[in-house]
Amino acid sequence: MMARPPLGSVYGVILNDQHSLALLASQFAQAPYQTPPKAPVLYIKPRNTFVDSGSSITLPKGEHSVEVGASLGLVIGKPASRVNAAQALEHISGVMSVADLSLPHDSYYRPAIREKCFDGACPMATHLSPWSEVQHLMPLSLHTLINDQIVSTRSISDALRSIPQLLQDISEFITLNRGDVLLIGVPYRAPQAQSGDNVQISIEGLESLHFKVEAAA
Amino acid sequence: MKYGRIVWNASIHTVTEKEGQVQLPDGRLVNESEVMWLPPVEPQTVFALGLNYADHAAELSFKAPEKPLIFLKGANTFVGHRALTRRPADATFMHYECELAVVIGRKGKHIKSEDAYHYVQGYTVANDYAIRDYLENYYRPNLRVKNRDACTPLGPWLVEAQDIPNPMDLKLASFVNGQQTQSGTTRDMIFDIPYLIAYLSEFMTLNVGDIILTGTPEGLADVKVGDEVVTEIEKIGRLVNTIVDDVTWFGQHRIGNT
């Protein structure tokens, strides 16, 4: 394992798994979406959201529940711009456990800023596993535990776009630099934690991540 | 005072303006068209507002929103004054957006709107290009429209807040090849600067170097390869950008190469 490097921009992708796509399939043809997504659906987790494993995370005032999106954080090791899927994996230096926290929101129409960008909304492990050491474990399973009980286990094997394909499609218009991160694995309606809960993300081959959720005073 | 960041003689300098020229810290004066401009601050978290002028919302057939429509930008998208921006070959509608950019100078959370200006370091001009061909209704405006490499010019100058007593009364204008295509005033913002700072800081800490791009008034126009696009804000600055095609950007042999 290696210490997490200084991070740049953190991008996440949603609607990249068959499970979520199936849940939303009946809505795609209706307002406000009109058609299913074509390009990867991306969002940004800004730096005020970054906190280390072991933190207590205080939800925005008035909020008591949070969706816990267990994710792989793919850390870029060398700049990726217009990469071909066949070579894309060379640009990943390591992988870490990340929880993409979101205040529950059912609509993906507008950017979810308050919901996804509150302080502490992106707890992450402090160490990465080198890509070369986890590659053979793919597809990984992501386990979410709340108060020591497993509440969700998901494999990334049902991805719409594979990791190399995502890197190709995203780097067509965004240059991913060293220290930038791509989060994958967040499902629609991820399990919810309540204030007072202890949460753990456990992924084979990676340092696990744990944190506590608290309501604002 | 106003400050810029430039590359001159192969190093980075923080510069000021003197008699229409650029002054380096050691007193050297150079011509503004001969230096390479960087964004005047290194952008940290950057927020952008959609539909924050009633006339622009109407132009896009939207009602004015009841709460701010905010999206974020990554580091890849920023370039300085006099940069080139690429119009992809398949784009049919790419437009500029002249926006007042508010630079945060002091860390804060739960900032009251009446205190908000104490957290502002200064102002600059942004051109928040959009390529509407790529618009989709998921986290709209989606990143493929709004967060492309080199599609958000910033600059040239950061003008200190103390020199702009009322940022809510500044004229904005855009020009394509010298023809004015957009005009407005920051008076017409739906959510003003103090409101936005209070709104964001209710749930997130604002940090030094964070920037809020406050939206654009009506007057969208398609820009073509070769166009010189100027976005200008009274008392803040005049930001120049030039649109280029894929061949100019990548070189002939790299076209279609992924």
Provide structural commentary.
The complex is a heterodimer of chains A (217) and B (258). Helices cover 13% and strands 37% of the residues of chain A. In chain A, β14 and β15 form a beta hairpin. Chain A has a single domain, classed as Fumarylacetoacetase-like, C-terminal domain (Fumarylacetoacetate hydrolase, domain 2, Alpha-Beta Complex). Chain A starts with a strand and ends with a strand. In chain A, strands 1, 2, 3, 6, 7, 9, 12 and 13 form an 8-stranded mixed β-sheet that branches. Chain A has a 5-stranded mixed β-sheet with strand order 5-15-14-10-11, with no helix packed on it. Chain A has a two-stranded parallel ribbon with strand order 4-8. By secondary structure, chain A is mainly beta. Chain B has 258 residues and is mainly beta. Chain B has 2 domains: 1-38, SH3 type barrels (Roll); 41-254, Alpha-Beta Complex (Fumarylacetoacetate hydrolase, domain 2), CATH 3.90.850.10. In chain B, the strands form 3 sheets. In chain B, strands 1, 2, 3, 4, 5, 6, 7, 8, 11, 12, 14 and 17 form a 12-stranded mixed β-sheet that branches. In chain B, β18 and β19 (237-244) form a beta hairpin. The longest helix of chain B has 9 residues, at 193-201. The model of chain B has no long low-confidence stretch (mean pLDDT 95). Chain A binds chain B through residues 8-9, 11, 14-15, 32-35, 37-39, 41-44, 46-49, 60-61, 81-84, 108-114, 117-119, 168, 172-177, 180, and chain B through 44-45, 47, 69-77, 109, 134, 136-144, 147-149, 200, 202-207, 257-258.
